[in-house]
Task: structure prediction
Amino acid sequence: MKCSQIASGGLYHEAVPGRSRRWTNIHTAKLEAVEEIVDELQSPAMVVYEFEHDLARLRALYPEAPWIGGGVGAAKSEEIIANWNRSEYPVILVQPQTVSHGVNAQYGAAQDIVWHSLVFDYEVFDQLIKRLLRQGSRHAKIYNHLIVARDTTDEAKLRSLRRKERTQNGFLDALREYAKERAER
Result:
């Protein structure tokens, strides 16, 4: 996790009981990449973060952007998604495990997801994408902008996601073939 934190641009200090969690800024390369991508987009962007220090730095970059993640209650999250679906925000910050299931975020103008931080869990990755790419969306395609820090655990996460995608797609293809063969009997 320390390596993932460093790749994202921050590093937590050792926890001290009774004190809020402290962290040190390591670099701003990913923030700069997020800013560049968002500035070039023609539609709202969903920006994905992993760590609280990512959120703090992204909120400094986009102080008006709402976020959904730890500490945001269900009612507030529902309000943010309703506003997002009305295209009221140019940027929304999301923690992937929090929004990857049970959220319908497809009704607005957004078709871009900017991954400040990647995840290892393919289901979370895939399901977050499907919050925008689903029935009711105005768009036939969703664009994923993956920010990958070279020579870091980000590259391992990306390889892992690609392998898991191939495995899942292979299984689904085999299942469809099996169902087709069974139907033809």
